[in-house]
Amino acid sequence: MTDCIFCKIISGDIPSYKVYEDDEVFAFLDLSQVTKGHTLVIPKKHVTDIFEYDDDLAASLFARVPKIARALEKAFPEMQGLNLINNNKELAYQSVFHSHIHLIPRYATDDDFGLKFGNNQTKYSTEEMLAIAEAIKNEVN
User: Fold this and answer.
1) Is 102 assigned a catalytic role?
2) Distance between CA 83 and CA 91 in Å, rounded?
3) Considering the domain 5-114, what is its CATH architecture?
4) Of these residues, 38, 98, 100, 102, which one is catalytic?
5) Are the C-beta atoms of residues 105 and 82 closer than 8 Å to each other?
6) pLDDT single digits (tens) 33-80
7) Listed GO molecular functions (predicted)?
8) Do 54 and 62 touch, CB atoms closer than 8 A?
9) What integer pLDDT is reported at residue 1 of this predicted model?
């Protein structure tokens, strides 16, 4: 795609701090560096989001994530955890529409990153949970 910033990074038209590359995957430091070592892992094939992955692309990209995560852990022994984030579509905070996985090293509870998971367990009855599960199960091919 000609106007995609990540495609331009892959082609070398825009410089990056590359940490990994092979025939199918490219990984580089996120310029925001939410925490030290914040890395983006992207498929070289342009896909907008997770909804455009086929099985081969998913296998290829997600097989590299642990390798890069282990490299982060070795490079930064003070790292105490790692968040994997994948935002899909604007409402889910996707801002670059070339699919990417954020690897965000965690060093302390007060670093400049946070997530909040609400607990809505009491909003759904057993019957509603079964209906939700069934609706999803019926769509998995």
Assistant:
1) no
2) 20
3) 2-Layer Sandwich (3.30)
4) 100
5) yes
6) 999 999 999 999 999 999 999 999 999 999 999 999 999 999 999 999
7) catalytic activity
8) no
9) 63
